[in-house]
Amino acid sequence: FKVTRVQTTPFDGQKPGTSGLRKKVKVFKQPHYLENFVQSTFNALTAEKVRGATLVVSGDGRYFSKDAVQIIVKMSAANGVRRVWVGQNALLSTPAVSAVIRERVGVDGSKATGAFILTASHNPGGPNEDFGIKYNMENGGPAPEGITNKIYENTTTIKEYLTADLPNVDISAIGVTNFSGPEGQFDVEVFDSANDYVKLMKSIFDFESIRKLLTSPKFTFCYDALHGVAGAYAARIFVEELGAKESSLLNCVPKEDFGGGHPDPNLTYAKELVARMGLGKSRSEGEPPEFGAAADGDADRNMILGKRFFVTPSDSVAIIAANAVDSVPYFSTGLKGVARSMPTSAALDVVAKHLNLKFFEVPTGWKFFGNLMDAGLCSICGEESFGTGSDHIREKDGIWAVLAWLSILAYKNKDNLNGGKLVTVEDIVRKHWATYGRHYYTRFDYENVDANAAKNLMAHLVKLQSSLAEVNDIVKKARSDVSKVVHGDEFEYKDPVDGSISSHQGIRYLFEDGSRLIFRLSGTGSEGATIRLYIEQYEKDPAKTGRDSQEALAPLVEVALKLSKMQEFTGRCAPTVIT
Ligand code: VG1
Ligand code: CO
User: Ligand 2 center to residue 121 CA distance, Å?
Assistant: First the structure.
C-alpha cells in the first residue's frame, strides 16, 4: 500500500471528557473529524511508540463503528503500526478490550500495546445519536490525563494526517489479512469477541458453584443487555457455560441503535427488566425472578436487582468487597485495598474500616483507579454510576459484577439448594445494613441544561462556600431537621502513585452527621450541560435502616435545591433522571 499525507484543519471541542470523546454521529461524520482525533492520539503517543505497535480496535457496535474501524485501520497502517486486532464485526465490550490488551496472544505470538475503543457507553446510538472514541494504554486502562490533555492540544494545531490506500478489510470473518507497505508488513487480525474474556472470567470465579445455583429450580435469573454488546457475552457465559435458560436473556442481540432505547442500566431506562423484577409502575404480573441484572451499551456498567428490590451501586461495591474473600476464588488470599469515586457513598469506607483494608477516594472516572491497581494497592473498586470492578482488568466490568453477585449468592446458599430457605439478594443487603449501617443515597441528573446556566450555578456554589455561616443560615431556614454544614470545598485529588494533581473534581458540602451533598458537571454528554447532584445520608441505627430512600432523603434534597438555587439558575423544577 501507499501512504498519503492529507491536509486538514483543527475542529473545536475535541477534548476527551470523563471517558473519551463523545459527539453526535453527524459531528463524527464530518470529513477529517475522526481522522484528526486519531492522528492527534498517535502524535500524543509519539511516532516511536506507534511504529511497530499492536492495536486493538473495536467497540460496542453502535452505528458508525464499522466505518470507523476501516478508517482507523488505514491510518494505523500509514502511521507504521505493525498489526491491528479487530473483534469480529467490530464488537468488543470495554472490559473485554481491557482483557484482550492484558491477556490475549495473537496468532503470531504478539501482544497488544493499546486500543481504540469505539463507544459512547450508555448514550443512545443511531444516525441521529452519539458516537465516541477513547484510547486505552498498555495496562488495559483509559489513557491518563497527561495523555488526554496532549491529545486535545494536538487537535487544536493539527495540519495533516496519514492514511493508506488499503482496501476495506472483511471484519465479519475470523482470520488474518496481510498487507505490505513502504515500511514493511501490516496485518489485520479478526478474532472471536468473547473467547479471551470468557477464559478470564473462568479463571476468577468458581463456575461450578455458580452453575449449581443457576440450574437449581429454587433460583430464577434474568439478564438484560439493553441491545448493547453485553449480549455477545451473556449468551456464552450465562447460558452456555452456566446453564441459565435461554429465556432468561432479554435484549441480548447487539444492535447499532440499541433497539431505539437508551442503553443505561438504571431504574428509568431498563424498563423491561425493572417490570419483570416486580418494580416500577408497569410491573409485570406473576412471580419475579430472584435475581436480575442489566448492562449499558459497552457492558462496563451493571445494575443489580433482587426480587422487587433495587441494590444501589454504592451498596453493591461495598457488599462485594465485604464478601469477596469467601465467595470468589480470585480474592481468596485477601484484598489489597478498595477504592471508590468521590461521589460514591461511603458504604465502602465502613467496610474498609471493619476489615482493616487500604482505602482510596478518587475523582469520577475509571482512569484514576488504574494507577492504584498497577501499584498493587487496590483489588476492588466502584462508582455510584453503576460501575463496579476489580484489578483483573483496568476498566469497570458489568458481567464481572453479576458473576460476583452470583458467587456471593452461591456461597450463601451452598447448603440451601437441596432444602432450606434461599438467602435472597434482599436478605444479603439488609444484613449488610444491619452490620455496617445504611447509606441512603440518590442522584439527581439535570440533563441538557443551558451550558452557561450550569456554569453560573456551579460558580454560585463555590462562592457560597466562603461563608459557612451563610450556608448554615440557608440550611436552617430550609429544614431545621438537617444537620449543619461543617466543611465545603472543591474536591482535589493527588494521585498517591505518580503525584499528579486533578482539581475541580466536584463541589462538596459535608455535614456534621456525615451527610454529603455533591455537585458536578458531567463530562460524558454530547450536548448542553448535565448537572449531577449526589445526596447521601448515613444511618447507623439498625432500627432505622429500612426506610424508603427518597423519603429519608427528602430534607437533604430540599436543602440542596435551596443552596444551589437550582430552579432559579436552570428553570428546572425536577431532575431529568433520578437514580
Ligand atoms: C459518568 C459517570 C462516571 C463514569 C463515566 C463513564 O461520567 O458519572 O462515574 O465513570 O460516566 O462511564 P460523568 O462525567 O458524565 O458524570 V461509561 O459507562 O460512559 O464508560
Ligand atoms: Co459504559
Answer: 4
| Nearest atom within ligand 1 for CA of residue 366 | 10
Collapsing DSSP to helix, strand or coil, 284 comes out as: coil
What are 419's strand-pairing partners? none
Is position 121 annotated as part of the catalytic site? yes
User: Which stretches of 375-480 are DSSP H helices?
Assistant: 398-412, 425-436, 451-464, 468-478
| pLDDT, mean of each 10-residue run, the chain (579 residues) | 97 90 96 98 95 97 98 98 97 98 93 97 95 96 92 97 97 96 94 97 98 96 98 97 96 96 94 93 84 98 97 98 98 97 97 97 93 96 97 98 98 91 96 95 94 95 94 91 94 93 94 94 83 94 88 94 95 91
Instruction: Spell out a b/e string for 146-183, using b for 16 or more CB atoms within 10 Å of the CB, else e.
Output: ebbebbbebbeebeebbbbebeebebeeeeebebebee
Query: Three-class SS of residue 342?
Result: coil
Name the residue among 75, 57, 152 with its Cα closest to residue 113: 57
Residues whose beta carbon lies within 6 Å of some atom of ligand 1: 18-19, 121-122, 296, 300-301, 341, 364-366, 383, 385, 387, 522-524, 532
Q: Which of 121, 379, 502, 515 is catalytic?
A: 121
Question: Number of helices (H) and strands (E), helices first, in the chain?
Answer: 19, 26
> Atom of ligand 1 at shortest distance to CA of 385?
9
Residue matched to cell numbers 501512504: 3
Cell 515500511 belongs to 183
**Residue 185 CA, ligand 1 centroid: distance in Å:** 38
**Do residues 395 and 98 make contact, with C-beta atoms less than 8 angstroms apart?**
yes
Tell me how far the alpha carbon of residue 366 lies from the centroid of ligand 1, in angstroms: 8
DSSP line for 23-56: EEHHHHTSTTHHHHHHHHHHHHH-HHHHTT-EEE
